[in-house]
Amino acid sequence: MRHTVVEAQSSTADRPRPRRSSLERVHRLLSSFSYEHTQLSLSELSRRAGLPLSTTHRMVTEMLELGMLERDEDDLLCIGVDVWKFGLLTPKSYGIQRVALPFMQDLYATTGLPVHLGIPEDDQITIVESLRPRGSGPERPYIGQREPMHVVAVGMAMLAFSDPNFQERYLAALEGDRSADAPETIRRELAQTRATGFAVSQRKTAPKIAIGAPVLDRVGLPMGAISLVVPQGTATPPYGHLIRSTARAVQRTAWEQGMG
Question: Which residues form the HTH iclR-type domain (predicted)?
Fold first, then answer.
């Protein structure tokens, strides 16, 4: 028996590890940058990507030639303009962002309050547009920021109108949580969101209040959601109706332009 175990362990140790593809390594390098780390040295990039320094050096040299990476005035590495241009062509974000932006600008001009646009990404949301006063506080997400659906108003607005099976899987993943994020609490909030057409949340903005409304496709599933962040103590229904009307205007325009 011991001989068999040793043989099995030896076989496992001798088994070659799966080799990462070049594309995966490029993805790891690009994913190493963030809003907190926009410039990196070669060694920092190697460490954050989990790649050997020699491999990082070779790939960075080629990515610099292709415009995927650039060097700043301090000779640190940063994301290249070409990658930014590719990102602008993403239909899932660019289409809804292009349609929603004029309506968001009107809403911001009317209220002077932060306005955000999010899209669904599996069980998370990604912020793809944000208008807000300079110096906004913790309710100020950056473009590209991801959050679990249930912790932000745009996410709750989308989750409330998602496929019921998806909702149940999402809520099941929260089972055992005895905090304010317990499935029973979320379920009640989702029911209220469906009844009013807008979600109300303070999980990321407290003491301020975020109010979000979904932009639905022709089947009734969310393509995105718009939110407004209002001061503490504000009566939410008037702003809820305003954000819901804005989301529906975006929805109508998106349908007219063949989206959804």
Answer: 20-88
- Judged by phi (left if over 0) then psi (alpha if -120 to 50, else beta), residue 151 lies in alpha
The domain locations on the chain are 12-86, 90-256
C-alpha torsion sign, points 110, 156, 101, 245: negative
The two structure tokens encoding residue 50: 């989990």
Question: For residue 101, which of 254, 213, 203 has the smallest C-alpha distance?
Answer: 254
Instruction: Name the CATH topology of 12-86.
Output: Arc Repressor Mutant, subunit A (1.10.10)
Which pLDDT does position 133 carry in this prediction?
83
Residue 230 contacts residue 224 (beta carbons within 8 Å) = no
How confident is the model over 129-143, as a mean pLDDT?
A: 72
The structural architecture, per CATH, of the domain 90-256 is 2-Layer Sandwich (3.30)
**Any residues with CB less than 8 A from the CB of 136 and at least 6 apart, and which?**
114, 229
Question: Given a cut of 50, is residue 156 above it in pLDDT?
Answer: yes
pLDDT value for 22? 87
Would strands 115-121 and 77-79 be described as parallel, antiparallel, or unpaired?
Answer: unpaired
**CB of 130 closer than 8 Å to CB of 112:** no
> pLDDT digits over 93-107, tens only?
668 999 999 999 999
Q: Three-class SS of residue 120?
A: strand
Q: Do domains 12-86 and 90-256 have the same CATH topology?
A: no
